[in-house]
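Hey team,

Filing this mostly as a record. A colleague (T.K.) asked me to run one chain through the structure pipeline before their review meeting, and I want the input and output archived in the tracker in case anyone asks later how it was produced. No errors, nothing strange. Just documentation.

Input sequence:
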Amino acid sequence: MQSLRSNRVVVGGEVRPATVRWVDGVVVDIGGGQADRDFGDLVILPGLVDSHVHVNEPGRSDWEGFETATRAALAGGTTTIVDMPLNSVPPTTTLSGLDAKLAAARGKLAVDVAFWGGIVPGSSGEIGGLVERGVCGFKTFLTDSGVPEFPPTPIEDLDGLALGVPLLVHAEADDHLGEPGATYSEYLASRPPRAEGVAIERVALLDSPVHILHVSSGDGVDAIASGKVTGETCPHYLIFTDQDVTGTEFKCAPPIREKAHREALWDGLISETLSMVVSDHSPSPPGMKTGDFATSWGGISSLQLRLPVTWTGAADRGVGFEQLGWWLAHSPARLAGLADRKGSIEVGKDADFVVFDPDDETVVRGRQLHHRHPITPYEGMRLRGRVVDTILGSPARMLERT
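Output structure:
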C-alpha cells in the first residue's frame, strides 16, 4: 500500500485535510493519519485530464510525438491525455488508422492515453468499428482543418448519425469566414466571433451529443447557453487578448480575441455554460511559425502549462481549487467516457495526483519545456503556481472509453 496526505486535498467537492491510500494503482481509502509522503499545505488535485491534444504521430512526429507529448503532460500535472485524430498520417478516421496510431504509441508513454476518432467525408462506414474498438468519440470540422487528409464535413452529412458517443465540432461557419491577411488584425477580422456563434447554432440541431471545441468568443458562449451542446475553452483564450499578440507564435484557430471576449469566457466557465479548460496542444516545427499570419501554422503548444496558466487567471477571480479540479480533470474525463476511473480522487478510481504549490510561480522558458519544439507565446511569462510532483498510480497505458 502507498499513501500521501496534505492539509489541502481536493476530494468530495471540497478542499480538506486527507490521507489517500492506494493499492495496485487504485485508491482504497481516503481518511486521516500519517502517510508515506506528507505534502503539508500544498494542494493535491486529481491527476489532470486533457481531452484535446494533437500528438501528431505517426506521420508528423517531427511536429510532436508520444514520447515528448506525454513527458510534457506529466511535467504539467496531466496524467491522462486524449489524442486528436489529426494531424497524424493516417488520421484516426478508419480502423487501419487507429491501428497505426496504437502501434506508434506503444512503448512511448509517460502518461495514460486514450483516442478520439474522426469523421471526414466518406468515413461514416468506419464509425461503428471505431466505437467497438473504444474510441472516445469523433471529431469533425466545418471548415478547413489545415491539413489535406482531414477535410471538412458538411453539416447535412452529420445529421442522423446518432453516434451514442460525443461528436466534437470545430465550430466556425465557413460561409462567415473571410480571407486571412498578413497582419494579425487582418487574420482576426477573417474569423469573426459570429462565425463561431452561427456554427454552434447549426450543430445544436444534430441528434448526436455535441461538444464544441476551443470556444473563443462571447458569441460562442451565448450560443452554447441557448443550445443543447457542451463546450470547452483553452488557456490561451483565458489569459491573452489581441493586444498581447506580437508574432505568429500566437496564431491559433479560432483566434485570440479582444478583452471583452476573454472576460465572457471566464463568465461562461464560472456560470457552468462552459465545462472545461483543455490545451488544444497543436505544435509544429518553428519554421512553420515564421512569416505572416496568412501562411503560418495555426496552433499553440501549451500541454505542460495548462494548470499554471489557468490558475493565473482563476486566482484573480476568486475561483477555488475544487473548481479548478472540475475544469481540468473531472469534466474532460467525463466527456471522454473515462470518469469511472479518472478525473477525481475517489475510492475505486485510479491513484493519479498532481501536487501543486499555488503560491510559487512558473517562469516559462521554451527551451526548458518537454514539448518537441521550444516555441511558445508564453515565453518569459511569470505564471502563478508550480507543479511540484505528478503521481501516476500505475504504469502508463492506452485506454478505451467505457
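Quick notes for T.K.: Residues 25 and 393 are 4 Å apart (CA to CA). Residues 321-335 form the longest helix (15 residues).
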